[in-house]
Specification:
332 residues, mainly beta, four-stranded antiparallel β-sheet, 11% helix, elongated
Length: 332
């Protein structure tokens, strides 16, 4: 592995008003669950406007639901300290990328078939769907749908095709009957009716091509690629998948031997997220006596519209602007 990845997920909450460096690791006025904070080189709360002259290294941290208790050197018990997931160190001189993207919805592929003909009763009409998103065998997975016209109308043809497609249990598209045309829409994978934060399969979009195989279709019948599939940004399925992949760096490698023991997912279903991705390098001395670097990626997802985002960016933007790369400020 030549890249270490950490994923932090923030909730739609406001900054804890009483939070300070002094209360960060205490059970009183500490961060709330799902609160994202920026820490300086000493793992203390970084203030707005900080630059690399103040702290050449920063960390991002997510406060999670778990707490712990300790007894300090004075013998005093401290309870309810919020656990933090802390990113790898982000060195200002070695930051290579600082990108922010606001949430945008995913859009499914849409294909519209408009039969321009007078169907003949008793005649077979055929549509073949070829899927181009099957990465191991692109274009080699296809499904053929056949109907026999029962009424000499386009509406009848549309109804028959819509019915046979939507009755297909393992269909990867959904058909809509618009009387004069058939609209085919790619489904979310894995089949969207069972998708959840603990799903094993990764989310991806269906891409396909439609072909009219029967010579009984006239040349005037059109197949229009109405809408291209776009993955969007910050959809909860993609955040979930990023969180799952990052668990590999914590030793969760095998998801095919059950039961799989994993921490509770922090992604919230049906929630939209804004995204901040920071890429940097960390220097180290290798066993062969060379100074080397390894690549680090810190992915931060905060619920779209969360007020705490303003507080996070008030620290990150000036610090990133003060790095040698002088990155532009992020805003949502």
């Amino acid at each position: 592995m030549d890249r270490v990845n950490k994923v932090l997920i923030g909730k739609s909450i406001a900054r804890t008003a009483a939070l300070t460096s002094a209360t960060l690791y205490t059970g009183t006025n500490g961060p709330a669950e799902g609160e994202i904070i920026v820490l300086d080189k000493n793992l203390k709360l970084a203030s707005a406007g900080i630059t690399i002259a103040d702290s050449p290294i920063i960390y991002l941290a997510e406060a999670i639901g778990q707490t712990y208790s300790i007894t300090n050197e004075a013998g005093t018990a401290v309870t309810g300290i919020r656990k933090l997931i802390i990113s790898d160190p982000i060195e200002g001189n070695n930051v290579t990328s600082y990108i922010g993207r606001a949430y945008s919805a995913a859009v499914a592929q849409v294909v519209t078939i408009t039969p321009s003909l007078t169907p003949v009763v008793g005649t077979e009409y055929t549509i073949r769907i070829v899927y181009t998103d099957t990465y191991d065998r692109p274009g080699q997975v296809a499904v053929t749908y056949r109907v026999i016209c029962t009424t000499a109308t386009v509406a009848n043809l549309c109804t028959l095709f819509t019915g046979v497609i939507n009755k297909h249990v393992n269909r990867r598209i959904t058909a809509t009957d618009n009387t004069t045309n058939i609209v085919l829409t790619g489904r979310t994978m894995p089949y969207d009716v069972t998708d959840n934060v603990n799903a094993i399969d990764e989310y991806y979009q269906v891409n396909f091509k439609a072909f009219l195989l029967s010579n009984n279709f006239t040349s005037a019948t059109t197949v229009a690629y109405t809408t291209a599939a776009t993955p969007g940004n910050g959809t909860w399925q993609r955040v979930r998948d990023a969180e799952k992949k990052a668990q590999s760096y914590k030793g969760i490698m095998n998801r095919t031997v059950f039961p799989v023991f994993t921490p509770a997912m922090r992604t919230v279903a049906s929630t939209n997220y804004d995204t901040i991705v920071i890429e940097s390098k960390k220097g180290y001395s290798s066993p062969d006596s060379y100074d080397k670097t390894t690549r680090l990626t810190t992915e931060l997802y905060i619920v779209d519209g969360a007020s705490q985002t303003t507080d996070v960016l008030a620290v990150l933007n000036p610090w990133m602007a003060s790095t040698p790369a002088a990155f532009n400020a992020i805003s949502f």
